[in-house]
Prior knowledge:
Layout: E1 5-9, E2 15-19, E3 35-41, H1 48-57, E4 66-73, H2 79-89, E5 94-99, H3 105-115, E6 120-124, H4 135-142, E7 148-157, H5 161-178, E8 189-193, H6 194-199, H7 211-221, E9 225-233, H8 243-248, H9 250-299, H10 306-332, H11 339-363, H12 369-396
Parallel strand pairs: 3-4, 3-6, 4-5, 7-9
Antiparallel strand pairs: 1-2, 1-5, 6-8, 7-8
Amino acid sequence: MTDRTERMTTTMAAVMPYQHSSTTKPYTNTDGPSVSIVIPAHNEAGRIGHAIQAVLEQWAEAVDAVEVIVVDDGSTDGTVMEATVFAQRQPDRVRVISLSQNRGKGYALRCGFRESRGAVVGFIDADLEYPATALPHMVAAVEPTQRACAVAVRVSDHRRWHERWTSHLARTLARFLLRLPVRDTQAGLKVFPGWFARNVLAHAHEDGWLFDVELLLAATTARLTILEIPVTQERYRPRRATAATMLACAPTLGRLAWQRWNHWARREGAETMQMIRFGLVGLCNTACDLAAFMALSTLWPPDGDGYRAAVEALGAWIVATLVAYPLHARFTFRRRLSRWGFYAVTSMGVALQMAATGLVTQDVPSVPPLLGKALGILLAAGFTYTGYRWLARRASTAAVPVKAVPESPS
């Protein structure tokens, strides 16, 4: 824990200590707003009032649904005073946090995320070059599942040509190096589930513009669905980030890329081992199927009765499926799978195998039936592995806290 203190300007214009603590205590917020929008601001006295008003107008018919958190990042103009005017007029909807020194956009956003209360948390740049009107649509996309985030993607850019091209180069480089599944990493308009913003993003590390990259990396690691919302970027002033600022971030970007590729390599290795375990269980399942069929045919010999043989084959498959469930759950995927989902996927896999075997044998007479059977097994194996893997991922994200937030930031 650090002994640094920051100043929080309350709605009564009093100064309260803003302590950073390494301890967290979850609690459930039932009376607070459903949406928290953080506005980081550094020397934005001429714009911050308009930004606050623009965000509040998006929820004009639901006055208690949104809170605006302005984080003043060590401004030397009247940004805090302008924001405090709104906080005094609407104390339940506007809060102001004042940092004693300029620490960067990422640091300011982390402070705002820690103090948020909404089930959905987003941020928007104070200059409003990105439209505040997109916020309700982004919130509506994130709120239902709490397993997605919405990021603005610039499809039209009204800035000068050199600003557009350098920005495009920077985000393309970041996307390539970090293997990010999003076209625009740097747009200053993003929305996240509240639990993710408070429990994950509030404890990130980057203070500058690479915070946008870090939060997208965190969302990818947490397997959140990233939704791209098309927007138009206006130009109300020259860009503050210079080419020198971007170049200064190169070492940090390289470090993040190294960590990302190492994580990807470990994940791919884990995926390979999982597929090997799936194959081993498949061999065991096949042996069990054959053993059960042989036992049934010994007890009740078909004696040329195809119907009885088919029933015994079905019984052997049922026995093998019952054995396969605990093996795949405990050994292959190491998660509790939905039992009925497992049986449904297995049944569809068997149907696919039968159909593929029959079609290949009928339509390609030159192919021996055994090869047709092998092709059917491969198709069924790919299908069932994909289905079981989806069930495993769903099981791993079934119990996700929605409104657990830290009491004190770290």
